Amino acid sequence: MDREEVIEFLGQVPLLQRLPSSSLRKIAELVEVRRYETGEYVAREGEPVDGLYFIWEGKAEVSGSTNAEEGNRPELFLKQYDYFGYGATGSVHQVNVVALSKLTCLVLPDRYRHLLQPKSIWNADETPENFSLVEHILRLEPLEVDIFRGFTLPDAPTFKQVFGGQLIGQALAAASKTVDCLKLAHSLHVVFLVAGDNNLPIIYQVHRARDGNSFATRRVDAKQHGAVIFSLLASFQKDELGFEHQSVSMPHVPDPEILPSMEELRERRLTDPRLPMHYRNTVARKKFVPWPIEIRFCEVSNSSQQAKPSLNYWFRARGRLSDDPALHRCVVAYASDLIFSGVSLNPHKQKGMKTLSLSLDHSMWFHRPVKADDWLLYVIESPVASGGRGFCTGRMFNRKGELIMSLTQEALIRKAKPPQQLPKPKL
C-alpha cells in the first residue's frame, strides 16, 4: 500500500475526518501495518492498549467475559474503516478482538495519540490567536459524526441576518470535513431558505450522498430553531490531469497595491468637501468594523448614482491562513457573496431611494487551485434583472490571469418599504 492509498483510507474513518489534512498526512506516515490470521487474537481483555487500530481489510469479532451484574456483553463485529483502542493513555483493552478472516490493521502507536487532538479543524499546531478572523469564522465545532456547529462571531461584521457567505463557507467546511483530504470541492450549489439569526449557533448536518474513487457528493442542511434555513450540495474530486483551455482573459485593471483600501475610501468620504455634511456625519457616526476580507475596488463610484451593471475588485483574506487547501476554498466561498448580488441594482439606483437585496441561490465552480490569502480579481456582471430578481455572473482570476472559478447568483431585489409610522395620539 502506498502513502496516498493510506491517506485516502484514513480520510474515510469518521473519527479522523475532523482532523486537519496535515494531521492525516502525518498519521499516514506513522501508522504500522499489522496482519492477523483467522481466529488470531488482535487484542485481549485486560492487556494494555498500545495504539489505535484501524481495520484496513477483513472482519473481526468483539467479545468480553461474562459479568454477573452486566450480564452477557453482546457480540459486535468490526469491518473496514472501523477502529478500536481509542481511549485514555495507559488504559487497558475492555474486550477481546478476534480476527474472523484474514485481517489487516493500521495501528497508530500510543505515543502519537496527541495527533488526534488538533488546535482546530484546519490547523494542528498553532494556537487560535494566530488565525485570521475569517479562519475563526470557518472554524466549526464537531459535535458528532457528520454534525457540526458554527457561530456568528461578535467581532465579525454583522448584517440584519446571518451573512450568506458565512452560511456558504461554513457549510462547505462541514462537507469538506467528511471527505478524504485528497478530494477537494469542484462545484457547489446552494439555496437560501430562511434568514438566519445572528444570535444563535448554526447546526450543520452533512448527508453523504455518494463516495466514489474519484468523486464524492455531500448535501448539507443548516438549521436553527430545528428548521432548515439553508441547503448546500457540493461535489468533490481527486486531483487529476486532463485537457485544458481558457478562452476568457482577465480584464486590464490596476494592480491592487496602487488602489485604495476600504479604510482609505472611508477617510476620503469623511473629508471630501463635495459630499453633504449630513452624509459625512452619518458615515462618521457609524461604527466601522473591518471585513475579514480585504477589498480594493478597481473603479470608485458614488454609491447613490446609477452605474453600469458590472464591477471589478481585488480581494484576499486578511491575515495569514493555514495551509489546508480545503480551507482556502471555503474562504473564497465566504467572500464570493460580498457585494455580488448588489451589482444587479446598479442601473436602478436613485438619490434617496433605499433598496434591499437578498440572495436566493448561488453556484460556484472551482477550476484551479486557489490561495485565498493572495490577491484575486473578482469580475462581476449582471446581464438581466426581471420579476423582482437580479441575476449575476462572476469570474475570479489570480495574478497570473488564470481563471480560478466561475459563479452565478440570483437575488431578490426590491425597493425598501418605508418604515410604518405609528398613528399620532389624539389626546
UniProtKB/TrEMBL annotation:
It holds the Pfam family cNMP_binding. CDD domains: CAP_ED, Thioesterase_II_repeat1, Thioesterase_II_repeat2. GO terms for cellular component: peroxisomal matrix. It is an enzyme of class 3 (hydrolase). Residues 15-85 form the Cyclic nucleotide-binding domain. One of its GO terms (biological process) is fatty acid catabolic process. Homotetramer. This is acyl-CoA hydrolase. It comes from Ananas comosus var. bracteatus (red pineapple).
